[in-house]
């Protein structure tokens, strides 16, 4: 696993140059679109209390119990849409960070953005803002916290902003400090422990149309901006000398790319909380499927992230149904627990595979 990204960089140790050229990007993107649809349908059908027939009747306007119609249109559908939007945002943010910092291990979790957004959401919840202005006030606080975490990183790095390695080290330190502040808030307001943990782990439970209404314009706007940064990001990934030779100002381009990643991450975390490993693993999967051309990989990583989070949410609901059948009626598995476990297993597999390679 390499720590540098250049024109011949690797994804999880396999040369991209050996895998590009044979793909048909339009075909892969089409398959990813079908995967998004399949993940959304699976997530809709994975919940409790409804059969597939009742779900279909509720979606098509057939004769169905009003309670079933309410569950589908007011509970399940916004939950699925929020999962898709958050996954796409985190996938884009992760790929932008890895390209801008030239580090395949860069992710929102270690750049201060995710811990800052969680701290903002926890602070708003502890202050009682969720009781009178939910969820808008909490989302605004989370976005502000994510931007604050990134701003703190920007101030601390100073002249070292042009050094990707220094940015990564400072990012870990800032993330640890913000995580410590969140832990202090947990001790200060133990009565809100359940709500706090949901933000720290990441969940799609109780997401409503208001969450989706707040998320989609933000994600769409910054997603379009992210796709427009493809060419500068490709130059940054090749190194500062190459970027300067092409007429690009590396510091300015990197700063704008980081701003875009911060906005996408903050919006996602403000909607669902911290989802571990999504911003780290999903970009590698998208690059393996689509190659190193970011003009194609950026839309592809948005689709891959949507599939990953929505699929993980479906798995979380199926596991919750299984444990309910075993007698744990009030246990609900959060989607963040699934993404963290799967992401950790993927990284462990990759690390062990490269450990045995000559």
Structure explained in plain terms:
The chain has a two-stranded antiparallel sheet. Helix 6 packs antiparallel against helix 12. It has one domain: ABC transporter involved in vitamin B12 uptake, BtuC. Strand 1 and strand 2 form a beta hairpin. It has 358 residues and is mainly α. The protein is built from 15 helices and two strands. It starts with 9 loop residues before the first strand and ends with a helix.
**CATH architecture classification name:** Orthogonal Bundle
Order of helices and strands: EEHHHHHHHHHHHHHHH
**Alpha carbon gap, first and last residue:** 13 Å
Oligomeric grouping of the chains = single chain
Mean pLDDT, nearest integer? 83
User: What is the strand tally?
Assistant: 2
What is the overall number of helices? 15
**Secondary structural class:** mainly alpha
CATH domain class: Mainly Alpha
Helix content range of the residues, please? over 70%
Summarize the structure.
By secondary structure, the protein is an all-alpha fold. The chain has helices spanning 25-45, 52-60, 66-100, 113-126, 129-133, 136-157, 164-188, 193-201, 209-228, 230-237, 240-245, 250-272, 278-290, 294-325, 335-356, and strands at residues 10-11, 14-15. The chain has one domain (10-356): ABC transporter involved in vitamin B12 uptake, BtuC (Orthogonal Bundle), CATH 1.10.3470.10.
Layout: helices, strands, pairs:
Blueprint: E1 10-11, E2 14-15, H1 25-45, H2 52-60, H3 66-100, H4 113-126, H5 129-133, H6 136-157, H7 164-188, H8 193-201, H9 209-228, H10 230-237, H11 240-245, H12 250-272, H13 278-290, H14 294-325, H15 335-356
Helix pairs in contact: 1-3, 1-14, 2-3, 3-9, 3-10, 3-12, 3-13, 3-14, 4-6, 4-7, 4-8, 4-12, 6-7, 6-12, 9-12, 9-14, 13-14, 14-15
């Amino acid at each position: 696993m390499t720590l540098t990204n250049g024109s011949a960089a690797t994804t999880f140790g396999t040369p991209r140059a050996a895998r590009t050229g044979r793909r048909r990007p339009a075909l892969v993107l089409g398959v990813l679109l079908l995967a998004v649809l399949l993940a959304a349908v699976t997530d809709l059908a994975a919940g409790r209390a409804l059969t597939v027939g009742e779900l279909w009747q509720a979606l098509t306007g057939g004769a169905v119990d009003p309670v079933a119609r309410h569950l589908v249109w007011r509970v399940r559908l916004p939950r699925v849409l929020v999962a898709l939007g958050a996954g796409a945002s985190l996938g884009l943010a992760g790929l932008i960070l890895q390209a801008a910092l030239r580090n395949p291990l860069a992710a929102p979790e270690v750049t201060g953005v995710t811990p800052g957004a969680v701290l903002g959401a926890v602070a708003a919840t502890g202050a009682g803002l969720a009781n009178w202005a939910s969820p808008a006030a909490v989302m605004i606080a989370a976005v502000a916290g994510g931007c604050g975490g990134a701003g703190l990183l920007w101030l601390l790095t100073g002249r070292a902003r042009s050094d990707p390695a220094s940015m990564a080290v400072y990012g870990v330190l800032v993330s640890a400090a913000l995580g410590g502040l969140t832990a202090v808030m947990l001790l200060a307001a133990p009565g809100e422990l359940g709500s706090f943990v949901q933000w720290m782990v990441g969940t799609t439970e109780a997401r409503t149309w208001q969450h989706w209404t707040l998320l989609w314009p933000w994600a769409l706007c910054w997603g379009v901006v992210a796709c427009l940064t493809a060419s500068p990001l490709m130059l940054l990934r090749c190194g500062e000398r190459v970027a300067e030779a092409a007429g690009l100002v590396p510091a300015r381009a990197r700063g704008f790319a980081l701003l875009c990643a911060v906005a996408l991450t903050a919006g996602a975390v403000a909607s669902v909380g911290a989802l571990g490993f999504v911003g780290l693993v999903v970009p590698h999967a998208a690059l393996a499927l689509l190659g190193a051309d970011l003009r194609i990989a950026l839309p592809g990583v948005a689709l891959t992230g949507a599939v990953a989070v929505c699929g993980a949410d479906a798995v979380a609901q199926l596991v919750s149904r299984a444990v309910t059948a075993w007698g744990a009626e009030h246990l609900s598995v959060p989607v963040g627990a699934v993404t963290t476990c799967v992401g950790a297993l993927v990284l462990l597999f990759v690390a062990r595979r490269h450990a045995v390679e000559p």
